[in-house]
């Protein structure tokens, strides 16, 4: 049981939690996808690395910056070069190794709980079998692990296993709400299935990567740069703001 620890708004008037008509959404999200690719290019993912390492890395990324989570990940791998050592170590030692990632005590317990569950169910630390399961089954298996929600599961599936699962992080959630691809009160967890259903499997990776780039550069949380946004023509938030300004 030893494995290496190395590796990686919806429009006003639409009922809360519901999407618009499927045909409208299909056309709209297709336009969004094309505009994103024109602006940010067409990223093509090369999935790989240990899926369990990716899963642990995503747990470490929760509620912290990429810089801090990467530092914690490297530190964990240096201190415990295989997963059996992490599982056998005292919680406080694991927490010390990942201190730079924040919430170290909680994350240490969570990581060890995940490792214990994986080892108990699989008798090793290899999650490669998830590549061969139907996507819904693979997602459900991951989400049954302690502390693993839709985003963490989707990250592992997409980036490590090459499965067409869409992670909805804070940028994807915010931008798709403003565009009107999901309802204004749809939470991030529910947004995963709603958005995935509107995209072709081979669009998932590029949509995710380009949405994050757009959220960081243009559609920022407090002050979106609507005046220079390439998606303004299809954005509910932008057109709502124009209406408010006209009525002022």
Automatic annotation (TrEMBL):
SMART domains on file: ENDO3c, FES
Segment forming the signal sequence: none
Keywords, comma-separated and alphabetical: Endonuclease, Hydrolase, Iron, Iron-sulfur, Lyase, Metal-binding, Nuclease
UniProt key word Iron: yes
Metal-binding recorded as keyword: yes
Domain HhH-GPD positions: 60-217
Molecular function (Gene Ontology), one example: 4 iron, 4 sulfur cluster binding
Gene Ontology annotations of biological process type: base-excision repair
E.C. number: 4.2.99.18
Sequence segments annotated as region (Disordered): 1-23
Segments of skewed composition (Polar residues): 1-12
Cofactor annotation: [4Fe-4S] cluster
InterPro entries: DNA_glycosylase (IPR011257), Endonuclease3_FeS-loop_motif (IPR003651), HhH-GPD_domain (IPR003265), HhH_base_excis_C (IPR023170)
Protein's UniProt name: Endonuclease III
Provenance organism: uncultured Thermomicrobiales bacterium
